[in-house]
TrEMBL record:
Extent of the signal sequence: none
Protein name: Transmembrane sodium-solute transporter
Gene Ontology biological process terms from the UniProt entry: sodium ion transport
Localization annotation: Cell membrane
GO molecular function annotations of the record: symporter activity
Membrane topology reported for the UniProt record: Multi-pass membrane protein
Coiled coil: none
Keywords: Cell membrane, Ion transport, Membrane, Sodium, Sodium transport, Transmembrane, Transmembrane helix, Transport
Family: Belongs to the sodium:solute symporter (SSF) (TC 2.A.21) family.
Lineage of the organism: Bacteria, Pseudomonadati, Bacteroidota, Bacteroidia, Bacteroidales
Organism: Bacteroides fragilis (strain ATCC 25285 / DSM 2151 / CCUG 4856 / JCM 11019 / LMG 10263 / NCTC 9343 / Onslow / VPI 2553 / EN-2)
Source organism, top-level taxon: Bacteria
């Protein structure tokens, strides 16, 4: 049943790719969708790209250990989207950028430019591998392991499918496939909620009462400054997570830059930001309902929160319909994130590191195709590496990775945007590498000596250290304004 669902789903994706790519696979179409993407289509598709298969599985399982405190971070997300819409998007459209890291070359220098692009490639490769790993693991555990098919082949097959429908038209195809995938994700989430509430014999008011009265319904934590769930830590981290993982991320910005105008891109960001909070609230509510159902059925829940929803979906506790919906949901969520990430990494590598903008159309296309294949192979390797190292909630691991790898990007862009000073470009790569190392040492020291636990606020500390380091080696003010 799962295999049949996968085959039908990807057949539709390939049909969309064929339709969108029938007029050829130019570099303009691959990188920026020829600037013809309708903003409302981009906005809807970006919901699925941000939620990912990790959210679909991990967020419902978070309530077991963290209650609903993840919503504190989500509330911060909205204000982060406003900052992106009014600070970063106008800059990108003014400079007519294909890769957003070109700004660092214009403002700071070539070494900062290459460093920023390299940190993005590392961040996106690790994050995409972690997200796609979770789906591969579920498919392997519940479907392919009994067939004797090894995990690495599941990873290879998944990445190959992404490559097949993105290699020709890139972002032009992804804008439309993401729309389908977001629709499937939301439909699957709501349908699973309906199945669970029916199993609990609850009406709408009963659902609200059950969730609000549950011991895991706590959202806000104001009293414990040492906790990683403290409101101010989570809220401020949410703002900066969006700024770096959306506003300073080529993957997410590439979709926005494919819109027809800055105004359209900003409307996309507003709608997208509004939609994120209620969807995450539904995921967390589903998590509480699953805990209640497990208690009624006297089920022993797995230790890892990421395994709770897969347990109910794959072991027949909710019926075969939920199994199909769960399969569609995680595949739609995972691949809406992975396809755009692979395209964005290809764009950044070609534009930022290979400088294909100076090549002829045909030569640039050949390089783009080779890079697309090479990054696909590298993604398979990192998925297998995550499988070997995984030992915690995947969504938590992704944000911790982001704290270390996106921090230098935050510091570099902040220096460029909010100062008029000229820095010594040759020191920037060393500063960008030293900042995460100092953050890691500070985190270890704080835990051992004071018991204080850094959470996602490591991202802000990392950005501040990078900013300070670049400031120290800077001199005299610039006359140009950016």
């Amino acid at each position: 049943m799962i295999l049949a669902t996968i085959v039908c789903y990807f057949a539709i994706l390939l049909l969309i790719a064929r339709i969108t790519g029938r007029k050829g696979g130019s570099n303009a179409a691959f990188f920026k969708g020829e600037n013809q993407s309708p903003w409302y289509v981009v906005a809807f598709g970006m919901i699925g790209a941000s939620i990912s298969g990790v959210t679909f599985v991990s967020v419902p399982g978070m309530v077991k250990a963290m209650d609903m405190t993840y919503m504190q971070t989500v509330f911060g997300f909205f204000f982060g989207y406003l900052a992106v819409a009014h600070i970063l998007l106008p800059l990108y459209y003014k400079l007519n950028l294909t890769s957003i890291y070109t700004y660092l070359d214009t403002r700071i220098g070539k070494r900062a430019y290459r460093t920023g692009a390299s940190f993005f490639l590392l961040s996106r490769m690790l994050g995409t591998a972690a997200k796609l790993y979770l789906v591969c693991l579920i498919l392997y555990t519940y479907v392919f392991r009994d067939m004797g098919i090894p995990f690495w082949s599941i990873a290879a097959g998944s990445v190959a499918l992404v490559w097949i429908y993105t290699h020709k038209s890139g972002i032009k195809t992804i804008v439309w496939t993401d729309t389908l995938q977001t629709f499937c994700l939301i439909a699957a989430l709501i349908s699973i909620l309906v199945f669970v509430t029916a199993k609990l014999n609850l009406d709408f008011s009963g659902v609200i009462q059950t969730i609000s009265s549950n011991e895991h319904s706590r959202i806000f934590v104001f009293d414990d400054w040492m906790s990683r769930q403290n409101f101010f830590k989570q809220f401020l981290s949410g703002i900066f997570i969006v700024i770096v993982m959306t506003g300073l991320d080529q993957d997410m910005m590439q979709k926005n830059l494919s819109c027809r105008s800055l105004r359209d891109a900003q409307k996309n960001m507003y709608c997208y930001g509004f939609a994120f909070a209620p969807l995450n609230l539904l995921f967390l509510g589903l998590g509480i309902l699953l805990l209640v159902l497990a208690q009624e059925m006297q089920l022993e829940l797995p230790a890892a929160g990421d395994d709770i929803l897969p347990l109910f979906a794959t072991q027949g506790y909710l019926g075969e319909g939920v199994l199909i919906l769960f399969t569609i949901g995680i595949i739609a969520a995972a691949f809406s994130n992975s396809d755009s990430a692979l395209t964005a990494m290809t764009t950044s590598f070609c534009i930022d590191l290979l400088d294909t903008g100076k090549d002829t159309e045909e030569e640039a296309r050949r390089k783009r195709n080779r890079v697309h294949i090479g990054l696909s192979v590298l993604l398979i390797f990192f998925i297998c590496l995550v499988d070997a190292l995984n030992n915690q909630s995947v969504i938590d691991a992704i944000y911790i990775i982001a704290s270390y790898t996106y921090g230098p990007l935050l510091g570099m862009f902040a220096f460029g945007l909010f100062t008029q000073r000229k820095t010594n470009d040759r020191w920037v790569p060393f500063i960008a590498i030293a900042s995460p190392l100092i953050c890691y040492a500070a985190d270890r020291f704080a835990r051992q000596e004071t018991g204080y636990q850094f959470g996602y606020e490591l991202l802000m500390l990392n950005g501040i250290l990078t900013f300070a380091g670049i400031w120290i080696v800077s001199k005299k003010q610039l006359k140009n304004e950016f």
